[in-house]
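Q: Give me the 3D complex with S-adenosylmethionine.
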Amino acid sequence: MKANKTKAYIPALKYHWMTRFYYPLIQWGMQEKKLKMHLVHQAALQPDEVVMDLACGTGTLALFLQHSQAGVHVIGVDADPEILAIAKKKRKENQVDHIRFEEGFSDRLPFSNHLFHHVFTSLFIHHLSLEKKKETFEEVHRTLKSGGQFHILDFDNPQNGLMRVAFLPVQFLDGFETTSPHVKGIIPNLLKETGFAAIEETGKFSTIVGTLRAYRAFKP
Ligand SMILES: C[S@@+](CC[C@H](N)C(=O)[O-])C[C@H]1O[C@@H](n2cnc3c(N)ncnc32)[C@H](O)[C@@H]1O
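A: Here is the predicted complex, encoded as structure tokens.
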């Protein structure tokens, strides 16, 4: 685990007071279930596997993962205690007590090496500076088992002019520094630089706020 990093993060909708609106917004505005189930299906989870939902937000993907395969061990991690409180409430409502939610930063994950069979992350990497994106990918690589898989859903490489314009509101909200590398399509290169192999784009989706792409990569 790394130490002495800045304790800074961007909440789901930039401002803490907007966090309560995040879940309804992506649930109804972005076909959340279809997009997240795409990631779940590409993993083909097996019982007893240990999986992380990195920057889990309100825990929707963690719940989908737990429901998709009995016997998997799901751990959701997020830097924001306020959004984790919403995730824990949803866990209780859905009666899946065994999902663990932990507070933690993506660039110093509170886990030992080679722990996870799969790490998932959705709508998160575009929140990070280039340096933090790299450190986060290194941490995912460190905590995955050999042969483990990294599954990403995020804004990347708008597929046409309309999708490029649609992405502008996200850039205004989340910041141009963190989001601009995604206009060029940075994720496959970052995966390669970190040492991931068999990098594959598994899907692309047009949304009201730009193109989302899904990727899968393996730790050799
Ligand atoms: C846009 S939300 C996405 C939440 C969820 N993954 C989803 O798909 O709905 C981004 C999340 O990243 C979290 N976050 C931001 N910076 C972080 C960091 N450095 N480490 C861990 N979580 C972070 C925020 O608290 C927020 O919950």
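A quick observation: The pocket of S-adenosylmethionine is lined by residues 9-12, 26, 55-57, 60-61, 78-80, 83, 105-106, 122-124, 127 (CB under 6 Å).
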